[in-house]
Amino acid sequence: MSASMLSHVLFFCLLLSVQAQNCVFNEIIRHTSHLLEETSLSCPCRETDVSPCSCLPIAEPGHELACFVEGTEYMLKNISSNTLITRLNKSFQAQLDRKLCESLAREDHCRYMTKGNVEEFLKKILGSYQKINK
C-alpha cells in the first residue's frame, strides 16, 4: 500500500469517527425544553387507553435514539401533530439512520425497562442530550 493511499484511508477513518459522534444536540435541547414548558402532562401513564397520559418508552442506555423515534412517532399519531415533535422525530430518525450519536444508538431497536408519561419521556430526551453537550 502506498503512502498516499494509506493517508487517504486514515483520513477516511478519521472522518467516519468524527461523524459517528456528530450529535445535533442544540436544536433537540431547544425544542424539547420548549415542549416541556408548554406541556402540563405529568399524569401517570396508562397503557390501556390512548390519551396524553399514554405510556412512552424510557430507554435503556444505548437504545435511546430508537426509543426517541418510537416515542415521538406515537406522540404524532396519538397525542398531537405538533411541528416541534415532527422536527424531533426527523432529527432522531436521521441520527439513527446515519449511525450518528453513537452513545445513544449502540443498537437500532428500542429496549426499555419502564414506560413513562409525556413529561418523563421529554425529560429523558433532554437529559440524554444535555449529557452529550457537556
From TrEMBL:
<protein>
    <recommendedName>
        <fullName>Interleukin-9</fullName>
    </recommendedName>
</protein>
<dbReference type="GO" id="GO:0005140">
    <property type="term" value="F:interleukin-9 receptor binding"/>
</dbReference>
<feature type="signal peptide">
    <location>
        <begin position="1"/>
        <end position="20"/>
    </location>
</feature>
<keyword id="KW-0732">Signal</keyword>
<dbReference type="InterPro" id="IPR020447">
    <property type="entry name" value="IL-9"/>
</dbReference>
<dbReference type="GO" id="GO:0005615">
    <property type="term" value="C:extracellular space"/>
</dbReference>
<dbReference type="GO" id="GO:0005125">
    <property type="term" value="F:cytokine activity"/>
</dbReference>
